[in-house]
Amino acid sequence: MSEKQSPIFSKTYDFILWLLNHTETFPKSERFRMARRLEDSAFHFYELLIETAHSEHKHHNLIKADMELDKLRLYIRMCNSRGLTKPNQYHYAAECIIEIGKLLGGWIKSVSVSGV
């Protein structure tokens, strides 16, 4: 699976662009706390996808990506609980993460079946 073959790359890219625009609106005190965690986690997730596409150890990298996606879910929920996202923004972010998670799950399943 490569960046050009899987929609997970474009969905994640689009989500990161949205996230960057969203975190720019955080209060200054939260830009160095929640915004940074969100952004770092999203970038790390995308980097893990790239590493997986170029790696022989796909399953291991995909599990790491799945853990990073769980962190991203947590940070999004925390932002919502702290009032940093509006309900429609939280709904959009949650839907994106669910969709990306399904794509990731499919990739993990295909790697597990093929034994790569």
Could you characterize what this model shows?
This protein is mostly helical. The protein has one domain: de novo design (two linked rop proteins), CATH 1.20.1440. Helix content is 82%, strand content 0%. The protein is elongated, with a radius of gyration of 15 Å. The model has no long low-confidence stretch (mean pLDDT 93).
**CATH-derived architecture:** Up-down Bundle
Q: Superfamily at the CATH H level?
A: 23S rRNA-intervening sequence
Mean pLDDT: 93
- Taken as a percent bin, the fraction of beta residues is under 5%
**CATH fold name:** de novo design (two linked rop proteins)
Helix content: over 70%
- Continuous helix count: 4
Structural category is mainly alpha
Q: Based on DSSP secondary structure assignment, what is the total number of beta strands?
A: 0
Regions with little confidence, pLDDT below 50 for 5+ residues: none
Distance between the termini: 11 Å
Gross morphology: elongated
Provide a compact summary of the structure.
The protein has four helices and no strands. It has helices spanning 7-23, 28-53, 58-81, 87-114.
Fill in the keyword field for this structure.
116 residues; de novo design (two linked rop proteins)
Helix and strand topology:
Layout: H1 7-23, H2 28-53, H3 58-81, H4 87-114
Helix pairs in contact: 1-2, 1-4, 2-3, 3-4
